[in-house]
């Protein structure tokens, strides 16, 4: 995981237009939240877009995290993404804050399970085969035991093995953001997955141009130092990806 990024001095901030580097193309996908239907549609659009462009040395795919909760098919999303590695070998999956909580809950942490049910986790439990009436009747301990016995170990190991950051050229890809004025190599995983206002309100340059999800906006939020692509897919039906090549940026969304 930690081989995916390089450190920079805290004073060496990025000035000017970010550049991905030569002979590379990247697509990064925002928060999916259980919308397998939208993910499959967006992957078709990405495949068509990639094929329509000039051939290039490497086309990479990055998923920014929050695959689960809120939408109807979290388990199906995880299955699909695991299979996608065979179709798209240059795939990197970041762990979002919702995966962090889910892993803790599925490993037996009752406080994490209680929190999970407040942030859209009920839909995730249903996607793994729970019934509405069972969820209404189970004690927290019973639900913990059910979850620990139900979620496939392969799913948990896949989620646990996800990266928390990726750097390519002048771009840093994270789930939530960065703590301002701290070098990327010194960032804590909890901030990369959970930070919000301190990062969103910071307008000066970072050491990298940041591509992130986590904070829902009505459309792509493009700033001088970052771009947010969480367009609230579970509620809006709009799942968004950014395409990058050299100094070029473009966007693909479902529903266009």
| β-sheet strand percentage | 15-25%
Number of strands: 10
Indicate the percent of residues in helices. 25-40%
Report the mean per-residue pLDDT as an integer: 94
Second CATH tier, the architecture of the domain at 164-256: 4-Layer Sandwich
| Computed Rg | 18 Å
What is the CATH topology descriptor of the domain at 164-256? Purple Acid Phosphatase, chain A, domain 2
Query: Roughly how many Å apart are the termini?
Result: 35 Å
Report the top-level CATH class of the domain at 164-256. Alpha Beta
Q: Work out the oligomeric state of the chains in this entry.
A: single chain
Structural class: alpha/beta
**CATH superfamily heading of the domain at 164-256:** Metallo-dependent phosphatases
Largest beta sheet: what is the strand line-up?
3-2-1-9-10
Largest sheet: 5 strands, mixed
Q: Which of globular, elongated, flat, extended, rod-shaped describes the shape?
A: globular
Reading the helices and strands in chain order gives EHEHEHHHHHHEEHHEEEHEE
Name the poorly predicted regions. Answer: 1-11
DSSP summary: helix tally: 11
Summarize the structure.
This protein has 256 residues and is α/β, with parallel strands linked by helices. It is 37% helix and 16% strand. The chain has a domain at 164-256: Purple Acid Phosphatase, chain A, domain 2 (4-Layer Sandwich).
Features:
globular, disordered N terminus, five-stranded mixed beta sheet, Purple Acid Phosphatase, chain A, domain 2, single chain, alpha/beta, 11 helices, 37% helix, 10 strands, 256 residues
């Amino acid at each position: 995981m930690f081989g995916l990024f390089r450190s920079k001095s805290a004073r060496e901030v990025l000035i000017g237009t970010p550049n991905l580097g030569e002979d590379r193309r990247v697509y990064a996908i925002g928060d999916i939240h259980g919308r397998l239907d939208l993910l499959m549609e967006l992957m078709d659009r990405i495949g068509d877009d990639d094929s329509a462009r000039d051939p290039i040395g490497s086309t990479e795919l990055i998923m920014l995290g929050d695959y689960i909760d809120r939408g109807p098919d979290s388990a199906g999303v995880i299955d699909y993404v695991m299979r996608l590695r065979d179709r798209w070998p240059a795939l990197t999956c970041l762990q979002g804050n919702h995966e962090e909580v889910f892993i803790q809950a599925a490993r037996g942490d009752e406080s994490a399970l209680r929190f999970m049910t407040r942030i859209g986790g009920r839909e995730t439990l249903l996607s793994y085969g729970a019934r509405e009436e069972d969820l209404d009747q189970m004690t927290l301990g019973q639900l913990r035991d059910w979850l620990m016995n139900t979620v496939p170990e392969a799913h948990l190991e896949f989620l646990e093995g996800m990266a928390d950051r990726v750097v390519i050229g002048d771009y840093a890809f994270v789930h939530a953001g960065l703590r301002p004025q701290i070098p990327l190599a010194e960032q804590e995983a909890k901030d990369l997955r959970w930070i919000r206002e301190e990062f969103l309100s910071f307008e000066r340059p970072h050491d990298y141009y940041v591509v992130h999800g986590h904070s829902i906006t009505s459309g792509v939020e493009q700033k001088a130092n970052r771009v947010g692509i969480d367009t609230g897919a579970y509620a809006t039906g709009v799942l968004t990806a950014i395409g990058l090549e050299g100094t070029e940026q473009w966007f693909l969304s479902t529903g266009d």
